[in-house]
Specification:
5 helices; globular
């Protein structure tokens, strides 16, 4: 179990590394204060009921974060939704497995309730035995891999096929098993979905 000291050291080692296509110079300048603030992040849980291992926590954060933005640190499997007044909600997540996780700064370009899902051509090519049967798509519902809600990450107006989505497999939270997306248990992705607004920024940090 990672303690606060370990978490802070991971944050200090993590830096945004957006690909050239994902970030213009103005975005890079705007992101710099957030990176510096995240490296100094100290999690001080506010007086709330004792959470379980997958439950969100309300935490206090330094000044400099923009309310409504989302920050994902894959090193500690946590997603932060920034609130006003130097607070954030910290969610437990699963992330992309090695070689498929993609760091960068993205725009929340779309949101879907009980989204349909179609594996990408790359997924089918990598694992045809697993994904080819779903090439025509899977309708939304409890058995859908995207779960109850999905947030779609864009580079400008281009869908990157990266998602923050739900899952009905809570045992995958806290591990790197997905095809590049971040996942939350369904109850909590519903909560995040209700808070997140279109065109907010999503920061996916590098692995340490």
């Amino acid at each position: 179990m990672l303690n606060r000291r370990t978490f802070i050291s991971y944050c200090a080692a993590s830096s945004l590394a957006a690909p050239a296509w994902a970030q213009e110079a103005a975005d890079a300048q705007a992101a710099e204060p957030a990176v510096a603030a995240l490296s100094e992040l100290e999690l001080r849980p506010l007086p709330v009921a004792e959470p379980g291992p997958l439950d969100p926590q309300l935490v206090s954060i330094p000044a400099g974060f923009r309310p409504g933005d989302i920050h994902v640190d894959p090193n500690v499997f946590r997603l932060f939704f920034v609130l006003p007044n130097n607070q954030a909600i910290r969610y437990a997540v699963g992330v992309g497995r090695p070689g498929l996780y993609e760091a960068g700064v993205f725009r929340l370009g779309a949101k879907r309730e009980w989204p349909s899902w179609t594996p990408t051509p790359d997924m089918i090519e990598r694992e045809p035995d697993r994904y080819e049967q779903f090439a025509d798509g899977v309708p939304g519902g409890p058995e859908n891999p995207l779960g109850a809600r999905a947030l779609y990450l864009f580079d400008g107006n281009r869908d990157t096929y990266l998602r923050i989505h739900g899952t009905n497999a809570p045992h995958t939270i806290g591990s790197a098993v997905s095809n590049g997306c971040a996942r939350l248990v369904n109850d909590y992705v519903i909560d995040l979905y209700a808070r997140a607004t279109l065109n907010s920024q999503v920061y996916l940090y590098n692995r340490a």
